[in-house]
Design brief:
By secondary structure, the chain is mainly β. It has helices at residues 3-10, 75-83, 155-159, 326-330, 377-382, and strands at 16-21, 36-41, 47-52, 56-62, 87-94, 99-101, 106-108, 114-117, 125-130, 135-152, 196-216, 226-229, 235-239, 243-248, 251-260, 273-278, 285-290, 295-299, 311-313, 334-337, 343-347, 351-356, 365-368, 392-394, 400-404, 409-414, 422-426, 451-452, 474-476, 482-487, 490-495.
Length: 496
């Protein structure tokens, strides 16, 4: 760890509002189709994509310029440029439409479940988007609009006696014919017999065009919950409740099933797949989580069908703690690898856990997010809030993790050893309005388990959490301390 990283890890970050897109006015009613359902930065951090419940994908691009060369600019100006990325709206397109499966009498929503960026090429952007059943591969590129600027016309026949004077400046055309331009040009009776092709065509404007390159369909019987790109740039996986399929980007009519947890008798089903992610460096490794709170790491080099895992990560259940809600709140809603692939971050309903892939005895750190809601589990079950699927994200340097909560709050924790950083922020223009300091509780076990942030993120307001406003989706910039998060139809961005 270098000096800057060590300093950054040692002191809590001060988060500030950066931008908001689609901000709601007071009392404005949000349309269901406008609610954001997916967020993803590309690897460079220069582009951001969001998907919504209406099947649309919206792209944003970075506009602030950073000095990437060796010139020594003003240090303060340089620091601001690095810490305060600015984005602007780039384009949007309709990715999915509502469908109806006549064989199963099933309506398929257009809602975008996940978005993943692929390798860019020749100035074009590529990305994958999926709804419950169908994955699409999109290419977004600038196209030049061509217009006819000059026509090859014989002036003696086109203009007759109304030709401009010889003093008019002639223009030499490719075929050697002088095209005398005139404001009072009119076509003679009977048309222009001397009009010949080719005409002179110029490119005057550019327009962004999104084109669907491939459609990967009919491979999942259940709802797709995850897609993830391989580091080889050629393959990706898609996961539903019972299967994980491996695809080649160039082949859309077939996939290879690598994980299948479907029992012979569906009455014997005890757990389902909730999330799957490729290792960021090794293209042969991937991890998937389950509704029982376990994470399985698999190696595709071991066998074609990866029903047996390489490593199993799960926290042993405390004796005497089992209740009706135990399995529901243990279900993992999201997993993310750290950028170096050493750690896996997982989010269940109550906690955020950090796992070392070299240590399967238990998480190296556990962060309490919803512990204050434990007395309200019955109410949460009645209104279905207990089934909300919160996403998580980890910073590019691996020093911090973040996840969302209710009342449009999100929480940021320090992930480095010995860090006590735990901040509660609100998705608004004043993110620190509800911020409280939550000191870490010392570990009571001999393991390296660290439990932090056990205070209620809404306790300082003296009121209950607003379960209708939930911050489910968020993404961390790959190289900088910048977070994008979705509050209903609004996209908020913060920097530290």
């Amino acid at each position: 760890m270098n000096g800057a990283a060590a300093s950054s890890a040692g002191s809590p970050l001060e988060w500030r509002f950066s931008q908001v897109f689609g901000e709601r006015t007071a009392g404005e009613e949000v349309q269901e189709v406008d609610i954001i359902s997916a967020i993803e930065f590309d690897k460079s951090g220069d582009h951001l994509a969001t998907g919504d419940r209406g099947g649309r994908v919206v792209l944003f691009e970075r506009t602030d310029t950073k000095d990437r060369g060796g010139s020594r600019r003003d240090a303060e100006q340089m620091d601001y440029a690095v810490k305060h990325p600015e984005f602007r709206y780039k384009t949007e397109f309709q990715s999915h439409e509502p469908e109806f499966d006549y064989l199963k009498s099933l309506e398929i929503e257009e809602k975008i479940n996940k978005i993943r960026w692929c390798q860019p090429a020749n100035g074009a952007l590529f990305l994958l988007s999926t709804n419950d059943k169908t994955i699409k591969y999109w290419k977004v590129q600038e196209k030049k609009i061509k217009k006819i600027s000059e026509m090859n016309i014989d002036p003696s026949k086109a203009f007759g006696d109304n030709r401009p004077s010889p003093s008019s400046p002639p223009q030499l055309l490719p075929n050697g014919v002088h095209d005398y331009l005139s404001k009072d040009f009119s076509f003679p009776p009977g048309g222009i017999p001397s009009l010949r092709l080719p005409m002179v065509v110029t490119s005057q404007e550019t327009s962004l065009v999104a084109r669907c390159r491939r459609v990967y369909a009919h491979a999942h019987d259940y709802h797709i919950n995850s897609i993830s790109n391989s580091s080889d740039g050629e393959t990706f996986i898609s996961a539903d409740d019972l299967r994980v399929n491996l695809w080649n980007l160039e082949i859309s009519n077939q996939s290879f099933n690598i994980v299948d947890v479907k029992p012979t008798n569906m009455e014997d089903l005890t757990e389902v797949i909730t999330s799957a992610e490729f290792h960021p460096i090794h293209c042969n490794m991937l991890a998937y989580s389950s509704s029982k709170g376990s994470i399985r790491l698999i190696d595709m080099r071991q066998s074609a069908l990866c029903d047996s895992h390489t490593k199993l990560f799960e926290e042993p259940e405390a004796p005497g703690s089992r209740s009706f809600f135990t399995e529901i709140i243990a279900s993992i809603s999201d997993i993310k690898f750290s950028r170096d692939g050493r750690y896996i971050l997982s989010r269940d309903y109550m906690t955020l856990k950090l796992w070392d892939i070299n240590m399967d005895s238990g998480p190296v750190a556990s962060y309490q997010v919803h512990e204050h809601l434990r007395p309200k589990l019955c109410d949460l079950y009645e209104n279905d809030s207990i089934f909300d699927k919160f996403e998580c994200c980890v910073s590019g340097d691996g020093l911090r993790v973040a996840t969302g909560s209710y009342s449009n709050l999100f929480r940021v924790f320090g992930a480095s050893k010995g860090s006590t950083e735990a901040a509660t922020l609100e998705a608004s223009k004043n993110p620190t309005r509800r911020q409280i300091q939550t000191p870490a509780r010392p570990s009571r076990s001999m393991t390296s388990m660290i439990r932090r942030g056990s205070e209620s993120p809404g306790a300082e307001n003296g009121n209950a959490n607003d379960f209708t406003n939930k911050l489910l989706h968020m993404a961390w910039h790959p190289t900088e301390s910048s977070i994008a998060c979705a509050a209903a139809n609004s996209l908020y961005m913060y920097y530290a």
